[in-house]
Design brief:
By secondary structure, the protein is α+β, with helices and mostly antiparallel strands. It contains 12 helices and 5 strands.
Length: 318
């Protein structure tokens, strides 16, 4: 690695923090990718980013399996434009032609991080639909791609990130490429383990009150205790509990908790009070209340998870 591409001690610390923070939100594929992508975008001075899963089909044709998008949260791009572009991509996989070109290289160099200029000449780029239609709609110029095969997944399934800088900003440096590759390399071993994949059921897809019941279940409360805590009838708690078991494909409380522990998912319950936003889940894996651009309001530091749930209830009632 050349001196200009060498990571600084602060970069390594930030990458470790990003990975740990993602694992803390690992039970929700959109939640942990939202957070990780936002930090990576800021670390690399990017204006916009996509992070998700793809299936690389025959002919290196990409197929979306779920994506989180960063950029609209700070007003850089209209989420309606993001959704329109994704819808177009899902019906016309070659809409982002540069992706197919990148995947031809990635097939031989798994995890490689490349700027657009590394593999597409300017003469080919500036007259392409990819540039004239796709990138121009976002108001971006420089692009960086990084994808790696998902450990334990199908051979053609990859996790990836695409970052963009706005028109007029500098090109991505060798150090930027190194940061993104190392950050993604640190993350991918946890995908499908501590980090949920997009096809997996998420707490965020449950209705708000059902999420509260789920949190109580994971804390070991009985139906009677949950009813008292959340001011619900025993019947309602029972119905919500059945809905939870069906959602996660479990037969009961013991299996639900066992799965949570086995996957090393956090019990911080950041999803209890989450709100919904722009739905960017591919239709093929759409379930109930899928979201990608969500606000994750912090809990008040009250010292116990039980009080955190009660605090949310108090806030809603005030």
């Amino acid at each position: 690695m050349t001196k200009s591409a060498r990571l600084r001690p602060g970069d390594w610390r930030t990458i470790a923090e990003m990975t740990g923070e993602a694992c803390e939100q690992g039970n929700d594929a959109f939640g942990w990718r939202d957070h990780w992508l936002a930090r990576l975008a800021k670390l690399t001075d990017s204006s916009m980013g996509h992070s998700g899963e793809m299936q690389v089909c025959e002919g290196f044709e990409p197929k979306d399996m779920g994506v989180a998008v960063w950029g609209h949260q700070e007003g850089f791009v209209d989420p309606v434009v993001v959704q329109a572009q994704l819808d177009e991509f899902r019906t016309q996989p070659n809409y982002f032609a540069s992706l197919s070109s990148y995947f031809r290289i990635q097939a031989e160099q798994d995890g490689v991080c490349l700027a657009r200029t590394d593999f597409i000449h300017d003469d080919d780029w500036y007259g392409s639909t990819d540039h004239l239609v796709v990138q121009s709609a976002f108001g971006v110029e420089h692009i960086m791609y990084c994808h790696r095969s998902i450990v334990g997944g199908r051979r053609d399934e990859v996790s990836g990130v695409i970052l963009n800088r706005a028109l007029g900003m500098r090109e991505y440096s060798l150090r930027d490429r190194a940061i993104v590759r190392e950050a993604h390399d640190a993350l991918t071993p946890f995908i499908g383990r501590s980090l949920a994949r997009f096809h997996e059921p998420s707490p965020h897809e449950l209705a708000p009150r059902v999420r509260q019941v789920l949190a109580c279940l994971l804390e070991g409360d009985s139906d009677k205790q949950i009813a008292v805590r959340l001011d619900l009838s025993r019947y309602t708690v029972n119905q919500y509990t059945k809905r939870i078991f069906k959602h996660f494909g479990t037969s009961g409380r013991a299996e639900l908790l066992s799965r949570w522990i086995r996957r090393d998912w956090s019990l911080d319950f950041t999803w209890v009070g989450a709100t919904e936003g722009v739905a960017l889940r591919p239709p093929a894996i759409e379930r109930n209340h899928s979201t990608a651009a969500r606000a994750h309001p912090p809990f008040r530091d009250t010292g116990s998870r039980r009080t955190r749930i009660e605090t949310i209830e108090a806030d809603r009632g005030s």
